[in-house]
Design a protein that fits this description.
Length: about 375
């Protein structure tokens, strides 16, 4: 069966409106996280990675801010490939946790607004902008949504259902989202510090990212081609918001992913971890990687650059990982200073070169969900 290749991509975040721009900013150690005092999002000042003014496009007044984020990202990604959104062989997959949740506000919920809140309706609205021929799919499974959406796209392509997939992950910040995490006492009072001894919670972020995949090697974005490998998922069945205390379930997903791709620990260039900087998540991940015999593999979290972008995280972080894999470098884990987990992991602290061609991306989320996927580069 044919491989699945990266054809085109885009990231929209506070660090830039292209993947190249975002990747360059991350390499330079920049962050989109800042202190904000916006009463429309939070009653008290907070740290977050917040998008500024979006670029305009014809007819954009018809769309919500969330829909505009997605449309701009897809538009920018499509500009880098000859793949057509309206081709019958193309399917659109939306990854998000909350979608148009910002419509929930002080105003009365009308029937039209209620319809707009439904994720399938949002996906159809975005798809209609591009005249996408097939009914869009929605993947909304907490914070592993982005990685799962890419896994689903890979499986649909390998099954011969379609030739191309457009996967867009996006979420925006709102009072509903920020207050929800504040009620859990999960938000840090400083920029997040993944895997650090002083970590005390997440920093939220917003953004959108699109990854276009294809089975047509001629359409692969080269000259160094990126192949999307197999992925696996699991569930802790532990707690609605608290992850496993042993890491065994994420460890299972990681081990299964490595086995399915016939990749050993020695072949991995690096691990792009979920790394939310909560006490329990980072502890669980460290144990999972140790159980999977990956203690020596360089590891980082990108949350110090983007914050936790929820349904966009898996796509944004996959693309940064793909670009660093192609660039033959391993990125450091921003804001990390002192070892703060019990599992043995190799947290990377500076940009280093690598000749290895495989990277592991993991994600975990509320409800005990976990996912892992492999990306590889061709020489």
């Amino acid at each position: 069966m044919s491989s699945v290749y990266l054809a085109a991509d885009n990231i929209i975040s506070p660090l830039g409106f292209s993947t190249n721009g975002n990747y360059a900013a991350v390499k330079e150690g920049k962050t989109g996280i800042a202190r904000h005092d916006d009463k429309s999002i939070s009653a008290e000042p907070f740290y977050a990675s917040v998008l500024g003014k979006l670029l305009s496009f014809e007819g954009d007044e018809k769309y919500t801010r969330f829909e505009r984020m997605c449309i701009l990202s897809i538009q920018n990604a499509l500009a880098g490939t000859s793949i057509k959104a309206d081709d019958k062989d193309t399917i659109f997959i939306l990854s998000t946790t909350k979608g148009n949740i910002s419509l929930l506000g002080a105003n009365k919920i009308t029937p039209a607004k209620r319809s707009r809140l439904a994720l399938h309706s949002t996906a159809k609205t975005i798809g209609a902008h591009f005249n996408i021929a097939n009914t869009p799919l929605v993947l909304s499974n907490a914070c592993i949504s982005g990685v799962l959406a890419i896994m689903l796209a890979k499986r649909l392509l390998k099954a011969g259902k379609y030739k191309h997939t457009i996967v867009t992950g996006a979420d925006e910040l709102s009072y509903f989202i920020v207050s929800g995490f504040q009620s859990l006492h999960a938000i840090s009072d400083m920029p997040c510090k993944p895997f650090d001894k002083q970590r005390n919670g997440i920093t939220l972020g917003e953004g959108a990212a699109t990854i276009i995949l294809t089975t047509d090697e001629a359409l692969a974005d080269g000259p160094v081609k990126i192949i999307v490998g197999h992925g696996s998922s699991s569930n802790d069945a532990n707690h609605i918001s608290g992850p496993s205390r042993t890491g065994a379930e994420l460890g299972y997903a990681v081990s299964e992913t490595l086995a399915q791709n016939h990749v050993s620990a020695e072949q991995l260039s690096f691990i792009s971890a979920h790394g939310t900087a909560t006490i329990f998540n980072d502890e669980m991940e460290s144990k999972a990687f140790e159980l999977s015999h990956l203690s020596g593999v360089p590891l980082h979290s990108l949350k110090g650059h983007f914050g936790h972008t929820l349904g966009a995280a898996g796509v944004i972080e996959s693309l940064i990982s793909i670009y660093s894999l192609r660039d033959k470098v391993i990125l450091p884990s921003k804001n990390y200073n002192e070892y703060g987990v019990s599992g043995q992991v190799n947290i990377n602290q500076s940009i280093i070169g690598t000749e290895k061609n495989y990277a592991l991306k993991t994600a975990s989320g509320f409800g005990g969900c976990n996912a892992a996927i492999i990306y590889s580069s061709t020489n």
